[in-house]
Write the structure tokens for this entry.
Amino acid sequence: EPEVTQTPSHQVTQMGQEVILRCVPISNHLYFYWYRQILGQKVEFLVSFYNNEISEKSEIFDDQFSVERPDGSNFTLKIRSTKLEDSAMYFCASRLRQSSYEQYFGPGTRLTVT
Amino acid sequence: GEDVEQSLFLSVREGDSSVINCTYTDSSSTYLYWYKQEPGAGLQLLTYIFSNMDMKQDQRLTVLLNKKDKHLSLRIADTQTGDSAIYFCAESLNAGNMLTFGGGTRLMVKP
């Protein structure tokens, strides 16, 4: 069964460094998302992406964050200058088409900023 | 803004029914979802219900929606040890819109 994959599973970085989290959505899906979950808190929406554009973003998704679909398979989240409070589990999700209800989630990347 | 709340923990014996509850604040919520997360895995959609429905049944799962009270529940019949996981309630205004999640309920099933 097709699934969303994410790499790496765990990333440790120093404060102020740039980090890129990678996702491979399900191959024929058209809509892509990033969510995050800080330890002990709720899963929070960051951004949605369709047709090479951001469709919707939350207040969390400030200028330090960017997303890109550099080729036909990858979907990336970049954090330019990481802060301690960026430490979280980051989930990528994809959705097939406009009429689809289900967002398929990847297993997540745990980002630890030291 | 929207808020979704769940109790943190539920423990049941194998074979019993489990009922996981969720409340939400946004009366505009059109789609309500239940996701399951097993250790080391992503969020798996179990079922969803539209706001114009009261109930949806899917094998061992029954979802009840009380729109007046903004209350959603997930009943798992004949709970098995493999059902042990964290269950998240989520809502969205439209299909494909951002999901707003509850904090998750950890279900522990004792043999």
In short: Chain A touches chain B at residues 4, 31, 33, 35, 41-45, 48, 56, 58, 91, 93, 95, 98-108 (CB under 8 Å). Chain A is about 0% helix and 50% strand. The first strand of chain A starts at residue 5 and ends at 7. Chain A has a mean pLDDT of 94.
